[in-house]
Structure prediction request, 295 residues.
Amino acid sequence: MFMILGYPAPLMFGQLLLGLINGAFYALLSLGLAIIFGMLRIINFAHGALFMLGAFVAWGMLQYGGIGYWPALIVAPIIVGAFGVFLERTMIRHLYKLDHLYGLLLTFGLAEIIEGLARNQFGSSGMPYAIPAALQGAVNLGFMFLPIYRGWVVIAAVVVCLVTWIAIERTSLGATLRAATENAPLVQAFGVNVPRLITLTYGAGVALAAFGGVLAAPIYSVNPNMGSNFIIVVFAVVVIGGMGSILGSIVTGFGLGVVEGLTKVFYPQASATVIFVVMVIVLLARPAGLFGKAT
Prediction:
C-alpha cells in the first residue's frame, strides 16, 4: 500500500477530503459573517441558526412540496435571505449606532429563538436528506474513492466564494458598498439609497449561510443543532482571517479545514482544539488577523 509520511495514502487523502469539506462550510459561513461585519459592523451570532434554517427550508420543500435538491439550492437561500431582510429592517438596523455588544446579544437571542422553535417542532434527532441522483456514487482516483457529492460541495463552495469576492472587490457595486461603510452620508449624497443597500447586504450574507445549509443537508442530518456545531469554530476562522476581510475568510476557512483534517491523522486528540490554538497564536502575533487591517 502506498504510504505518505508513514501513513496509508487512503487515510491521508480521506482526511484531507474531510478537511476540505469542513473548510468549505467554514469558508461559506465565515464569508457571510465577514460581509455582514465588514459592511454593517454587526457581529451576527444568528448566522449558525440561519445556516440551519437553509437546510430545513430545503428539507421542507422536498417533504411537503416535492421540490428537489437543485431548485432548493436556489430557492432556499432566497427565502432565508428574505427572512434576513425582515430581521434587518425590523430589529437589527436600530443597533448600528450602538456598541457591537448590543448586536451580538440581539443576534444571539434570535439564534436561540430560531433553534428553539425548530427543536420544539422537529425534535433533536434530525431528518435525512437524500443526495440527488446525479451526484450519487463515487469515483475511483486510484489512491482513494472520491464521493461525487462531497467533491461537488467543495467545488460549489469555491465557486460561490470566488464570485462573492469578485463582486465585492472588483465591481462598481462592491466599491459602492465599501464606500458606504466608510462615509454613508457622502455616498447618499450621490443618490445611492444606503439603507436599502445595507438591508440587501445583510440579506446576501444570510443567503450565503442558507446556501451552505442546503449543501450540508445531504451530508449531515437536518437538525436544529447543525448550525450551533459550526458557529463557534466559524467565529474563530473569522478572527484568524481578520474581522471583515472577505479574502481572509475564504483562505482561512479552507486552510483551517485542511489543518483540522490532517490533525486527525497525526494527533487526533488535538483535532477539536487545533483551530483555537491557531487563533491564539495568530492574535498574539497579529491582533488584526492574517488579512485584517489594524485600526
Remarks:
- The longest strand covers residues 138-140.
- Strands lie at 3-4, 7-8, 138-140, 145-147.
- The two ends are 52 Å apart (CA to CA).
